[in-house]
Design goal:
With about 260 residues, the chain is α/β, with parallel strands linked by helices. It has nine helices and seven strands; from the N terminus they run βαββαβαβαβαααβαα. It has one domain: Rossmann fold (3-Layer(aba) Sandwich). The longest helix has 29 residues.
């Protein structure tokens, strides 16, 4: 039996991925900042550990408690919708501390064991917003683009060592707490220049009439990567993300 460690399992993509792998017979280590044993079914194949990816000691402790794992999924993260001009520097630091450095900490903590046994899969959950510019989430996009950049280099570094590294790029999902967690950080709703743009952004986020990403899309993308060594470095997850990926890879886009 194989074992997977997933960060950010208190809701959304992480929680659904933990459920999915449990249902498929895997041993699952589900981590979250605030422990909640009621989120997942009781199982001898499940361990729930406290983990704050912004705390190096917490990362080291959780990885040690998890023991040997075959797959690491870095899913923990949060977003901030705010005009760049109005985004507080401390908020930017928090974004990169969680989304970028938090992912890096997990990779650096678990990679030595993967390298030593010449096997293992690392999957970093990024975002399809890195595929095209969108107003009001520039700093969130930057934090995820940084994950993309170092993941691409990491994949080249560890491939000769028997370790696979991949990116999953989800789209907009009404099923996660992304919006609820992000909107408290929003700045500028009363700004005379930015307010109309912000209201359009909020309306678009709440509109579920078009293609969206479901949590199950992300769980299934991760499952495909884990079980198919020929999987691409980047995999879109969700109908909207797949459209954006196709557009980003089209000749008209790449030659622009």
């Amino acid at each position: 039996m194989s074992k997977i460690l997933i960060t950010g399992c208190s809701s959304g993509f992480g929680l659904e991925t933990a459920r999915f792998f449990l249902d498929h017979g895997w041993d699952v280590v589900a981590t979250m900042r605030k422990l909640n044993d009621a989120l997942l079914p009781k199982s001898d194949h499940l361990r729930i550990l406290q983990l704050d990816v912004t705390d190096a000691a917490s990362v080291a402790r959780a990885v040690a408690e998890a023991g040997s794992v075959d797959v690491l999924v870095n899913n923990a993260g949060f977003g901030v919708p705010s005009p760049i001009e109005l985004t507080d520097a401390n908020t930017v630091r928090d974004l990169f501390e969680t989304n970028t450095l938090g992912t890096l900490r997990m990779v650096q903590e678990i990679l030595p064991s993967f390298r030593e046994r010449r096997s293992g899969v690392i999957i970093n959950v990024s975002s399809s917003v890195t595929l095209r510019p969108i107003p009001l989430i520039g700093m969130y996009r930057a934090s995820k683009a940084a994950v993309n950049a170092f993941t691409e280099s990491l994949a080249l570094e560890v491939k000769p060592l028997g370790v696979r590294v991949h990116l999953v790029l989800p789209g907009r999902s009404p099923e996660t707490k992304f919006g609820a967690n992000a909107f408290p950080h929003l700045r500028g709703r009363d700004h005379p220049e930015y307010a109309p743009m912000i209201e359009r952004f909020i309306s678009n986020v709440r509109d579920t009439s078009g293609p969206v990403t479901h949590s199950s899309d992300v769980a299934e993308a991760i499952w495909r990567i884990v079980n198919d060594p020929s999987s691409p470095l980047r995999m879109a997850a969700g109908a909207d993300a797949e459209v954006w990926m196709a557009e980003a890879q089209s000749p008209s886009q790449t030659s622009a």
